[in-house]
Design goal:
Elements: H1 3-10, H2 14-36, H3 39-56, H4 66-84, H5 103-120, H6 124-135, H7 140-147, H8 151-186
Helix pairs in contact: 1-2, 2-3, 2-4, 2-6, 3-4, 4-7, 5-8, 6-8, 7-8
Length: 187
């Protein structure tokens, strides 16, 4: 991250903030989509976060901490967005789905769909900690800073989130297996 842009934006330089926002938007949107699992909601949360960043950037004490600080504002924007949209759609973006190249690829698509269904069963808080720690591979300290909690709390939240994900996947597997057995019995 260009700390000079951050410092200039802190002093009210609108062009510096525009450059910062342009550079940050894809990163923030990827994280918001990972948390919310809906492009429209992710776009709204990203926009909210950018407005919050512009409004509060003067309060940022250490420009070197900008990235973690921006994640914190984004996480709060995602939480607000999730509260507003209690019923998130269960449709994966068509742009994210690619046609399988071979017969073995059907299993990969099925696995990805199962993971998506399991991930959607998690609370927004559980999805957030998994996205920040596992998908972005942020160190525990940065995740803690983004969430505004102690690093030990991140560890316990991550443990509970992964346990909930495992339970959701197992429940989905049982449902899928029982539907398959019912179809076989009908034949």
């Amino acid at each position: 991250m260009d700390q000079d842009l951050v410092v200039r934006a802190q002093h009210g330089d609108q062009r510096a903030f525009e450059a910062l926002a342009l550079a940050d938007s894809p990163r923030l949107h990827r994280v918001a989509y990972g948390i919310l699992r809906d492009s429209e909601s992710a776009e709204d949360a990203t926009q909210r976060a950018l407005v919050d960043i512009w409004r509060d950037i003067r309060r940022l004490r250490d420009p070197a901490r900008y990235e973690a600080w921006s994640y914190r504002l984004l996480v709060h924007a995602c939480y607000r967005e999730a509260r507003q949209r209690r019923d998130l759609p269960c449709i994966t973006d068509v742009a994210d789905v690619q046609a399988p190249a071979a017969a073995g690829a059907f299993r990969q698509v099925d696995d990805r769909d199962q993971l998506e269904r399991g991930f959607r069963q998690l609370s927004v808080e559980h999805r957030t900690v998994i996205v920040l720690r596992c998908l972005l591979d942020l160190p525990m300290e940065q995740v803690a800073e983004a969430l505004g909690v102690a690093p030990g709390t991140v560890g316990s939240r991550l443990h509970r989130a992964l346990r909930a994900m495992r339970a959701a996947l197992e429940a989905d597997e049982r449902t899928t297996t029982s539907h398959g057995l019912q179809r076989e019995a009908v034949r």
